[in-house]
Design a protein that fits this description.
Blueprint lengths: L2 H11 L3 H17 L3 H19 L1 H12 L13 E4 L12 H4 L2 H15 L5 E5 L9 H11 L7 E4 L5 H12 L3 E7 L3 H10 L3 E7 L15 H23 L1
Helix pairs in contact: 2-3, 4-10, 6-7, 9-10
């Protein structure tokens, strides 16, 4: 894994809700230890306020919904030959079944891709994603679940080297050039993915999966870890889109 990729992941942690809250809390504890009570109170109070803010359902749901409402669910009547399912993380614990090897997002992406494949005659599935810290790529793990669900091996294409969305797009560009294809990824990730793919001259047709938004309209809901996670996912996408815009 190259140094630039690791550095990007390290820096990104500290500008996400998790990282901001953790950093402020750690600074507060340090200032408390150094007996700088006034500054410690400010830092600890800010960490608590931000933790509550990002964990509050109406806030996280607004962040998530703004992304997930960008594209409607896929129309299964379209006749597109290729379906590209983006990677989303995995593990290789042999004590677990294949259904538990993939992250929640990967599982839902694969399921949506397989459904589209079975509804589209003569189509092929493209799975991309690198090994990470394991010995098996996300692309291969995704394909194993697809095969377990009934997809034939000859209808699967693997890209096991791409480490991020741009590299996944470059892999597909070499394969399909300007041909239309279905792009399956998490609904929160889809707006940024579509922008990246189109910026490289590709013609993706969006197929959102793994929705996280809630339909409950209430302001009276206690902060939760799930809402904090959703805020983190949404902010990650906003930062990613901003960074992609800066890079042109």
């Amino acid at each position: 894994m190259d140094f630039g990729f690791l550095l990007k992941k390290f820096i990104s942690f500290f500008i996400h809700p998790y990282g901001v809250v953790f950093t402020l809390f750690a600074i507060g504890l340090y200032l408390l230890y150094r007996h700088k009570i006034s500054y410690a109170k400010i830092s600890l109070t800010l960490s608590f306020i931000l933790l509550t803010f990002f964990s509050y359902f109406p806030v996280s749901n607004a962040f998530i919904s703004n992304l997930e409402n960008s594209y409607p669910k896929y129309d299964y009547k379209q006749n597109i030959r290729y379906i590209h399912v983006l990677g989303g993380g995995h593990n290789t614990d042999e004590t677990q079944p294949i259904s538990s090897h993939l992250s929640d997002s990967s599982t839902k992406r694969v399921l949506e891709g397989v459904i589209i494949h079975f509804n589209t005659p003569n189509s092929k599935l493209i799975f991309t994603g690198f090994k990470g810290k394991t010995e098996v790529s996300t692309a291969r793990m995704n394909s194993q679940l697809a095969i377990a669900l009934g997809v034939k091996k000859e209808n699967i294409i693997l890209g096991e080297e791409p480490k991020d969305t741009k590299e996944e797009a470059l892999f597909t560009k070499k394969l399909l050039q300007e041909e239309n294809f279905v792009l399956v990824t998490s609904a929160t990730h889809l707006p940024r993915s579509i922008k990246i793919f189109k910026s490289l001259g590709l013609n993706p047709i969006p197929a959102p999966a793994d929705f996280k938004k809630g339909n409950i309209q209430t302001y009276f809901k206690a902060p939760s870890a799930a809402s904090l996670e959703n805020s983190n996912i949404a902010i990650h996408e906003y930062i990613g889109s901003f960074w992609s815009s800066l890079k042109g």
